[in-house]
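During data preparation, we tokenized the protein backbone, and the record follows.
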Amino acid sequence: MAQYQYHTEATIKYTENYLEEFHWYKDVLSQLCASKSTKKVSEALKEQLTFDKQEERESVPACNDLSLPAKHCRIDEDKKQIE
């Protein structure tokens, strides 16, 4: 609407109302952006914890002797701890 070549009283009022409403709610948008960056950091930490748990399992000799179902059970338990 701001790109119209000509404006009437109605289009000007509409734009003013829109801007007023935008400024009223812009804090919500900034919180959303913050939560996206927080989620990104959280995902990176989760990935690092998963990697650390895998290294921990591989470093314990007893884990290497487990059957495949037992290894999967151990991996599932680790995932539950991480989440």
